[in-house]
Fold these 4 entries.
Entry 1:
Amino acid sequence: MKELAKALRNWQSHQARVAGSVLYSDIGKVYYAKFGWQPNASNWQMEFPPMKIPWSSMAREVVEVDLERLCGRDETIIRDAMAKPTDRVKKLVTILPDLDHMLWHIAKENFATGHLFGKRPRAKGAIAGLPGHQAWAIWTHRYYTHPNAGSPGNVLYILRLVVEGDDSANKPSSRRENAFQREKQKRQVDSLIAVLHCAQAEAAEWQLNHVKLWEPTPWVQDVIMKSNICHRIVEREEDSVASSLWYDDDSVQETAPVWINNQHYAWC
């Protein structure tokens, strides 16, 4: 790993300067840290149970042809937000939730569901609300074992969740940040809840045991905690621990930039 850290410093550097490297540890937080990949300051998720309910009448399916447009809208929102200066931190970094990331996850989904069920899910997510007040999720069906095997580990991962008008998004935050005084618009709240209920319905239909959402924004956390949506919060200590190594001009940086949007779309 030490040699890899050195090699990555100049890997494909003819295209651009290498800024750093990201990995997701399934062996805890210590081993890779010894070689420079430090665990992110936060690695947690909200988990929701599947529910055998109809899709909300407020929402519609996100299908594969919708993904490019939604990813483009999301990228514009992110770039605009990160271009604004902040006094809290000097350096920010994010992995853009572009179409390639979504299609990588969906390719895995298509293979697994085709093998297990002989069909593929049509819905790649859900969207609700009118433009300017919309909420949408892009998700993937992840099977670790056959649903009939009795193992409770199969998951509907929400790869990316976007709520238009969420002023806590795409900036440094903590789940412990006090978001409860944040003014919320009812249309966005209703759209968000509709999308989350669709995710729970999709998980039930496809025999998935959990819906997992990595690190939602403080505004989204607030809505979920004040709603009647059953959920729990889980710290990831051993698996899928987002870790990163960052370079300066000569060596590894001692102070890492703040990672924005540590969500499941970036996992690989």
Entry 2:
Amino acid sequence: MTKLSLLAVCVLFSEVLAHMQLLDPPPFGASNNPFRTDPVDPYLQYPYNCCGRSDPYLCRGYLNLLGTPQGRPVATWEAGSVQTFSLTGIGNHYGGSCQVGFSVDGGKTFQVATSFEGNCPHRHATDSQDFSFTVPTDIPTGDVVFAWTWINREQEFNMNCAAITITGGAGEAAQPTNQDSGNLGFNVPDGCSCTCNKPQPAPRPLQRYRRGTGISAHGKRTDSPAVPFNERPEMLVADTGNGCLSPLTTAELKYPNPGPDVVEGDGEYQVELPLPPDKCGY
């Protein structure tokens, strides 16, 4: 089979079995990123290490665009403001859990802004894929990296990133620099092996779960105590071969270190911690 034929097969499979990706703000490598001049990344929707690839963890290798024309910020957000990120795709795996956060040191570390524990992406086709969150009030001013991560119930991890300018923050963010964060070559794989498993029914009666003294409701946010940005936990990485495994099929992920701003899911699935604790940072 020719490379062109293989690419056509991959495109067909991506339309039928695609996953989800960040739509807004436009991530590095996306078709809607106004500063992209390289070819569109056809794998942004796929989980890490899928379709015969070995994906660099941090931002799929795109940190090397920082400080270059293709790495320019795609949005300006004020510290402390409420913003919205949007997702797109046709394979939402009937939910999962997501985190969004920021790196103010050129991608060396990523602090959590908000954790969405369950029903992220929204599981029903009639639901919007828009999610609101608050930019930390004391995040440094300047150009930063915004990250979205998703861990679904098939133990798959995805991460997309975008450059953002922060105004009205505390201090200044580190100057972004061009980094070598992995191979960005998009060789056509020998076959498209990524598939979306069919949604599994909840194995237990639907119930709300408790967090502290409160009982969650659909989309309810927990209280957000004041936590300095530099003391927020780092975003969780699981299911990438690092030894940390999320729940498989029967539950959605509960973050062991979710940060101060948590949005609880709709309760259709219970939430469980990843295992083992020593590999998952708790």
Entry 3:
Amino acid sequence: MMLSRFVRPSLFAQTLNLKRPLALAKQTRSLATGDGNTPRVPPNPPRTRATPVSHDRATFTIRDGPVFNGKSFGAKSNISGEAVFTTSLVGYPESLTDPSYRGQILVFTQPLIGNYGIPSDARDEHGLLRYFESPNLQAAGVVVADVAEQYSHWTAVKSLGEWCAEEGVPAVSGVDTRAIVTYLREQGSSLARITIGEEYDADQDEAFVDPEQINLVRKVSTKAPFHVPSASGSSHVAVIDCGVKENILRSLVGRGASVTCFPYDYPIHKVAHHFDGVFISNGPGDPTHCQDTVYHLQRLMESSQIPIMGICLGHQLLALASGARTIKLKYGNRAHNIPALDLTTGRCHITSQNHGYAVDTSTLPADWKEYFVNLNDSSNEGIIHKSRPIFGTQFHPEARGGPLDSSYLFDTYLESVGRYKRNQAVLRPMREERPSPLLVDLLAKERVGVVPTTGMENLLRMGNAGEEAAAARAA
């Protein structure tokens, strides 16, 4: 197949880095994975935001709300973002590297955080990060009641404070997280600031930045396609990367499906006929910012019978593409123990969740139905098409961290992918069985051009003009 069918010229240039053609040629030859047997060894970019661990006075301020004084244990950096809380007991490295937390200050209800440290950035047999959900810490800030500066675990290589400082992310301990969560539950998710080494100034309330007004998906999505091969199986799935977690990719690749990840706004309907399935990933922020993605999904469902699955934000985008609407929840669902009822079987699953929006099922068109429902607040947890292999879940079946009760949904999806592939083999006998070795050889092996989090104030300072210029270059 022609490479240009998959990669726009500008994206191709980003992927190949044409200033170093000889070096890249050697690298891509070593990474050729047409048969899926060669390990993926993505480059590890150097850290550029590291600062010494700050132990200064720290202030956590909720806009038009209470002010909490504590102690810094991360980077000496002042940031603003949306304050949200998670009740998960473990899995803080996975949570903090989840791109869905981009732009948010994450408050942990678990009293002690950091006791098992931070693991290395080791990779598994698929070349995916073994212990993290993305290459960088994604949350804008961290708030805990008590932090363990001394850690103990066989995988640990540094403390939580050292990691936050390396990543340029401020962190606060010694505050009453019970009072914070009580306020957020009563008032809803709120804008907040972390200030290090300074007294609180009420006049600075006007400087709070609302991440919901920013297209956060653009910041966490790859800027050019990249490929993750599977050593087993021959299916090929196109992933729309809205901030995909490593364990979502692992859940697909480990079940025999090679994946090619595309930018969130890529016109997937133009290349879907080269794939056996389309998958829409999780991601941060308001789903209505992703109008291009919604339009492309609408075109895809109009023109193809390809199986489609969405998770979290991907589930919401699928609903928007179907004609439904989404709503913002008061304080969202962020935990590892939320019950979701399968309305088709009557079985209840304990699920891992991280979202602030939900699908309004009263707006679903007639050919769709509700699939799962949250047994705590009755919000929607899934939708499914009545006659086509298309469904989405608000919770995370890949659960990193959290329970794996619902991981069978990946098997359900890939079974429909296999049926579609077999049907296409009959209808289009000349269709390639496996991903093109040339495509696999030339595409990047890791997310391309994703800028690490720098706090919402710094993101805003970068300006919309920079975003528009980048978008124009990629067009």
Entry 4:
Amino acid sequence: MDEDGPTVTTLLLGDPSCGKSTFLSRLSLGAANLSTPLTPHNTLPSLRDYDQPFIYNIRMYHRSYRFEFYDTASPENYTLLQPDFVILCYDINDRRSLNNVKDVWSEQTARLWLSRREEIPVMLLGLKRDLRVQKAGAIYPQEGHKIAQELRCDIYAECSATTGELMEEVFEDIARKAAKTTTPNGGLTQGGCNIM
């Protein structure tokens, strides 16, 4: 089996405090701990922006992959990156963060990357799912999926990095889509957006 697999650059875009760093922190615990409840003795590690990219080596499809995740706070100006996969992130309890995905982040994605490489898959990811029950005016999956379709995203998903809810499923979707970017057909979904 191929030990030196491809590298896939994944860029997370979204407003500050929408949950991107907590999401990446949860991923850093490894696949076995994606949905493990947090306790005072089992907490999420602190990730430092200048440690980017956050690297995750995984094995799937009988092949190794190196996933390099960058956050918009990247010390290397994220606009200079050439991502293979873009994840647009928003806080499901903050309508402003979803509006910014539509008005700012998706526009930057189209202008900076999709205009040159239209085969780059894009995911819309709702974060902080655990807080939905605590706030009025939260964005529900139906609305998120509708926005994902309007933005022509390939995948829509939501999760909670704090509780681990749906983290395994989201990471599996990210890994599959990222791995497909290394194939001749690329990672674009044929015919619409998938919802988790």
